[in-house]
Amino acid sequence: MQSNLDQFKAGDAIAALTLAPISRTTLALYAGASGDHNPMHIDIDFARKAGLDDVFAHGMLSCGYVGRLVTDWAGPDRLRALSVRFTGITHVHDQPHLSGKVIERFEQDGETRLRVEVACANQKGEVKISGEAVVAVA
């Protein structure tokens, strides 16, 4: 749902998003939808042979959640840029907690824009993705 972005200024938090824990079903469905069938994400035997305890989520799944956070808040038509940095592995059963904070209000290309610091963390507060989004106010 779009917000009235004209009210936002630096320091304001955007609506947070908490999702269901990552399940094996989530990983299988994402692999099918994305075409990314890397066995590190879906085959526990393969992951264990590689020295891991279990499979882990696709980085782009969490990145998609970050995009959802921003577009749920601002609307997809207002998104001007999104950049992320992967900072940790999202494990099976981690629960994604997404948050954002406006860090700048500025003018560019004839429109007012907001720069938003975004993050995807797990239930322990461990940040797995950090990044920045730019959205147009109107």
From TrEMBL:
CDD domains to which the protein is assigned, alphabetical: SAV4209_like
Pfam family, one: MaoC_dehydratas
MaoC-like domain location: 20-103
Gene3D superfamilies attached to this UniProt entry: Hotdog Thioesterase
SUPFAM superfamilies in the cross-refs: Thioesterase/thiol ester dehydrase-isomerase
InterPro entries named in the record: Fatty_acid_synthase (IPR003965), HotDog_dom_sf (IPR029069), MaoC-like_dom (IPR002539)
Protein name: MaoC-like domain-containing protein
Organism, scientific name: Cupriavidus numazuensis
